[in-house]
Design a protein that fits this description.
heterodimer, A: 257 residues, mainly alpha, 0% strand, B: 270 residues, alpha/beta, Rossmann fold
């Protein structure tokens, strides 16, 4: 009985280590292939369009309402101390440091991460990877590398857009609706936000971008070649990516502070 | 053209290819016949270099594919075309781009020439005019024909067909069979067909190889196969449920399985 438990723990550990190792090799291969000729710029741009520009609307709505809620909550808390002039810096700092990178990454995970996993899984069940190989085209280079690079490029850009819209949302509620002084809102923001804050947020979004594309590509690529396999890979992608974003966020914050 | 020597491939305990030796002659149609799980698709994956065998060699144009570098293998692949069982068309590209894909990737041919080549290949499979459709809008038979057009777009010397007629209606089966034969006779393309469709195989084959659980049990011309006295061959080509090829594949006794208390028997199903 006790041995069974030990064996089960051992098996789980081994399979976890195996998966981690395989995903590491997978990422290495994708990068290795990405920087070999021939470069496929058009593929990269297509993927950036899919992960990045098609996420604009969802990021816009998320950012706008996050900023507006922050404006509302911040205003009510700050008025208790008579410090509503600090609203601008409070909204900007929380968005640039934390909410921007994290929420943006979570939204992109839900929209693009799941789609990538499903797409790669479907390519797998319909034999499209061996078909590429038979046409003398390296599947990892053609399919995976552009997606991983596109994730790393798109996320910082989307996060910058999120920050901008979020701050505007806070402005709408704080200044236009609740009557905080417009000059105070922006001047406090400018004096409070340092370059390190923006830089930290960008580092985070860069890592999240890599996480999203890496996990979703790997999950799709290693999915069982059945319909259940693909649906499981899609679900696991969203769960695993979201959790690792939150964990990595904590680790990065503790390193950056 | 292609020579398979002492090829062995196992998956765990299952021996999918058991020391196979065979040849696929140049400009001939060779059909590999066998039931499900007889190892015919496995053999095809080894021959095309998609998988590495446990041991043995596959010579293609004098080069051993099993020991070739990836670069050399990819160079040889440009002379191969393959029609997959599910056609394996790229679902995110339309028919035109699917067929033009190998040309765009491997050549610097101008767009207007590519257009002509794609039109020619589609005409060959009788589907000119569907360039703008997506693969999901086609029927199974049409997808196979588009897959075939894509397989021949680089003018290969060899085409591999993985169950080209499975799941098709009789007319589509006839069309595909005719296309395989036409490509072979008119363009001199060496063809290797994996199939379990006896009737259409007999129509198109110059040579037939019959596999049975990883072993070659017969090879020869259509006539030789039809006149074979091997009981397994006779059973296979007549499709009889009675004969040496067993219906059940459990290796445990049926009575034991019924009498044991365990919820699930541990008999190994292949």
């Amino acid at each position: 009985m006790n041995l069974d438990i030990a064996a089960a723990i051992g098996r789980a550990t081994l399979s976890w280590m195996q998966i981690t190792g395989r995903s590491g090799v997978f990422l290495f291969l994708a990068f290795f292939q990405a920087f070999r000729r021939p470069y496929r710029i058009s593929r990269l741009i297509k993927e950036i369009e899919f992960i990045g520009s098609k996420s604009f609307l969802i990021v816009f709505v998320t950012a706008l309402f996050t900023g507006m809620v922050l404006g509302l909550q911040g205003y009510h808390t700050l008025t208790q101390f008579g410090a509503q002039a600090l609203l601008g810096s409070a909204v900007a700092l929380s968005i640039i440091r934390e909410l921007g990178p994290v929420l943006c990454a979570l939204m992109v995970t839900g929209r693009a991460g799941s789609a990538i996993a499903a797409q790669i899984g479907i390519m797998k069940i319909t034999d499209q990877f061996p078909a590429l190989e038979m046409m003398a085209i390296e599947p990892v280079k053609y399919v995976i590398s552009p997606k991983i690079l596109a994730g790393i490029i798109s996320l910082p850009l989307l996060t910058a857009f999120f920050d901008l819209v979020g701050i505007f949302g806070g402005y709408l509620v704080g200044v236009q609706l609740l009557g905080v002084n417009q000059g105070a809102y922006f001047s406090k923001m400018i004096s409070a936000v340092t370059f390190a804050d923006i830089y930290g947020g960008m580092i985070k979004s860069l890592c999240f971008g890599l996480l999203i594309s890496w996990i979703s590509c790997f999950m799709g690529f290693s999915a069982q070649a059945t319909t259940e396999g693909v649906s499981r890979a899609t679900t696991q992608t969203v769960v695993l990516t979201s959790l690792s974003i939150l964990v990595v966020d904590y680790i990065l914050t503790s390193l950056l502070l | 053209m292609i020579r398979v020597e002492n090829l062995v491939k196992t998956y765990g305990k299952i021996v999918a290819c058991n020391n196979l030796n065979c040849r696929f002659e140049e400009k001939k149609v060779t059909v590999i016949l066998g039931g499900s799980g007889s190892g015919k698709s496995t053999l095809l994956r080894q021959v095309t270099g998609l998988e590495k065998p446990d041991c043995g060699s596959v010579f293609f144009d004098g080069m051993d594919l099993t020991r070739a570098t990836k670069k050399a293998l990819y160079e040889k692949r440009k002379k191969m075309g393959m029609l997959f069982q599910g056609s394996a068309l790229f679902n995110y590209l339309d028919i035109y781009e699917n067929i033009a894909f190998p040309l765009r990737e491997h050549t610097k041919i101008a767009d207007n020439v590519i257009k002509n080549i794609v039109t020619m290949k589609l005409e060959m499979v009788g589907l000119r005019g569907i360039e703008h459709l997506m693969p999901s809008q086609l029927s199974g038979g049409m997808m196979k024909r588009v897959g075939l057009a894509r397989a021949i777009v680089m003018d290969p010397k060899v085409i591999f067909y993985d169950e080209p007629t499975s799941g098709l209606d009789p007319i589509s089966t006839g069309v595909i069979g005719k296309l395989i034969k036409d490509l072979n006779t008119k363009l001199g393309i060496t063809s290797v067909v994996v199939s379990h469709d006896i009737a259409s195989s007999f129509k198109i084959a110059d040579k037939i190889i019959i596999l049975y659980y990883g072993d070659i049990i017969a090879q020869g011309t259509v006539e030789q196969i039809q006149n074979s006295t091997d009981e397994r061959v006779v059973q296979f080509i007549t499709g009889s449920p009675e004969g040496p090829i067993a219906f059940t594949r459990s290796d445990t006794s049926y009575i034991d399985a019924l009498l044991t208390d365990n919820e699930k028997t541990t008999g190994t199903m292949l």
